[in-house]
Design brief:
The complex is a heterodimer of chains A (87) and B (177).
Chain A (H helix, E strand, L loop, with lengths): L5 H28 L19 H25 L10
Helix pairs in contact in A: 1-2
Chain B lengths: L2 E7 L2 E7 L1 H28 L6 H7 L6 H4 L5 H24 L3 H24 L7 H15 L7 H5 L3 H5 L9
Antiparallel strand pairs in B: 1-2
Helix pairs in contact in B: 1-4, 1-6, 4-5, 5-6
């Protein structure tokens, strides 16, 4: 049974956790207690937000960077599992 | 008969069946549609050449979270480089996905490109209806295509993977597939 190793877990849980936290969890909190729309149609930041938009952006960006660094790490530092020989 | 997936996620046993034909089918559909999205964007810019990204990376990007990095490319030789690389990159990413050639490499750079579009478009008005936008969904689709190695289904990569060159250089399987 193939499972995540340590690097996989860091990428999956830290990277994915930050993206989901920034997009979904903060989004839900904003909907309930802050501002449901972080910017208006002209790109003006809505300052009533619970979490400043810049902080929210950086949380998501950090998650995406974790994923990207993991992808580069896989290519540079590991070798794919051998493919089973064709019959 | 569904393919059986047995693994662990978040410390729990995960077992479920996946329909092989439907999985293969959706991988191809996803590749074709996302590929055309980028190929069209790239060809469109070549069709109305010259392309000038300065309004985006110098104007719109200024003041966004990634502005300090992106605006470095807003003039001089770095702007000229960007003006060529955006349409060329989009065209190659689109072609890679549609043909299923160097699919993982193409999808990685697709996600890389989407990262810039997501934050710059979003923070300048695109997030007025929330943070989940087409750019973010595109980025996630690229990540999925790369993870699942979608090019092996009816793609050039299925052929490349069987070549002696790739067998002798197994790391290349990270770029194809």
């Amino acid at each position: 049974m193939e499972q995540f190793n340590t690097a996989d877990k860091i990428a999956a849980y830290l990277g994915g956790g930050l993206v989901v936290f920034g997009v979904v969890v903060i989004g839900l909190l904003e909907m309930l207690f802050g501002s449901g729309h972080p910017v208006d149609g002209e790109g003006q930041i809505v300052h009533e937000a619970l979490v400043p938009l810049e902080v929210r952006s950086y949380i998501i960006l950090l998650g995406l960077i974790v994923w990207g660094v993991y992808a580069v790490y896989r290519v540079v530092a590991t070798t794919p599992e051998p493919v089973p020989a064709e019959p | 008969m569904p393919e059986q997936i047995d693994t662990r996620l978040l410390g729990r046993e995960v077992t479920f069946g996946v329909s092989g034909p439907w999985l293969a089918y959706w991988l191809v559909i996803m590749r074709l549609v996302v590929g055309w999205w980028l190929l069209h964007a790239g060809l469109d810019k070549f069709a109305s050449w010259p392309f000038d990204a300065s309004w985006f990376i110098g104007g719109a990007a200024a003041g966004t979270s990634i502005g300090p990095f992106v605006t470095l490319f807003s003039d001089g030789i770095l702007l000229s480089f960007t003006n060529v690389m955006i349409p060329l990159g989009q065209t190659l990413i689109g072609l890679g996905l549609i043909l299923g050639a160097l699919t993982r490499l193409a999808a990685f750079f697709g996600a890389f490109l989407m990262l810039f579009f997501y934050f710059i478009n979003g923070e300048t008005g695109g997030w007025s209806h929330g943070l989940v936008t087409g750019d973010l969904l595109g980025l996630l689709l690229f990540a999925m295509i790369a993870t699942l190695g979608a090019g092996r289904v009816l793609g050039v990569d299925a052929y490349l993977a069987r070549t002696a060159f790739v067998r002798d250089h197994p790391k290349l399987r990270y770029l194809i597939g």
